[in-house]
Design brief:
Length: about 180
């Protein structure tokens, strides 16, 4: 009898152990599933952190480019103001005489020879040059033809010097603009 009681107690303990083992197995299964979900969450978090880091680097690069472009815009505005000042200070051509405008609008008459055409062009050029020289020069009647060559040459050299100075200052401004814009 004592042996049977012992066997019965042992059987009860074995049944309790099997029940506890089943319960433990369920908990372990749930823990493994939770661990897999946690590992997937960590992987997703790591990927999101990598994307955020890449986006932050792109944002920093964009910010630097924006600063560079802002500086270039400021320099371009300064150069624009300088160029506007140069243009404002540039000599303006005098108004053309009424006769010259009428001659330009009138239909061209056929010219007998090339020499006569050249003489007429030189006379028209002399009128324009003397018209640019001022009112005292406009009162004098220019002699048509080759007699006005000296005044033409003088006006061309004076205009060339003014143009050369303007070109030099514009070229300097362009070089500065190119240096500023493409320095980076």
């Amino acid at each position: 009898m004592a042996g049977m009681i012992m066997d019965a107690v042992l059987m009860l303990l074995l049944v309790a152990a099997v029940g506890y083992g089943v319960k433990l197995e369920r908990k372990l299964t749930a823990l493994r599933a939770g661990q897999l979900a946690f590992a997937q969450a960590v992987t997703d978090l790591n990927a999101a952190a990598g994307r955020a880091e890449t986006a932050l680097a792109t944002l920093r690069a964009s910010g630097q480019e924006t600063d560079l472009l802002h500086d270039r815009i400021i320099k371009a505005r300064e150069i624009k103001h300088q160029l506007e000042g140069l243009i404002a200070r540039a000599p303006t051509p005098a108004a053309r005489p009424v006769e010259e405008l009428q001659a330009m609008q009138a239909p061209a008459q056929p010219v007998a020879s090339e020499d006569e055409a050249r003489t007429m062009r030189m006379a028209a050029l002399a009128k324009r040059i003397q018209g640019l020289a001022g009112p005292s020069a406009a009162r004098r009647a220019p002699a048509p033809g080759r007699d006005n060559v000296a005044s033409i040459v003088q006006a061309l050299t004076a205009g060339r010097n003014a143009n050369q100075t303007a070109k030099q200052s514009l070229n300097a401004a362009r070089r500065n603009l190119d240096d500023d814009l493409f320095a980076a």
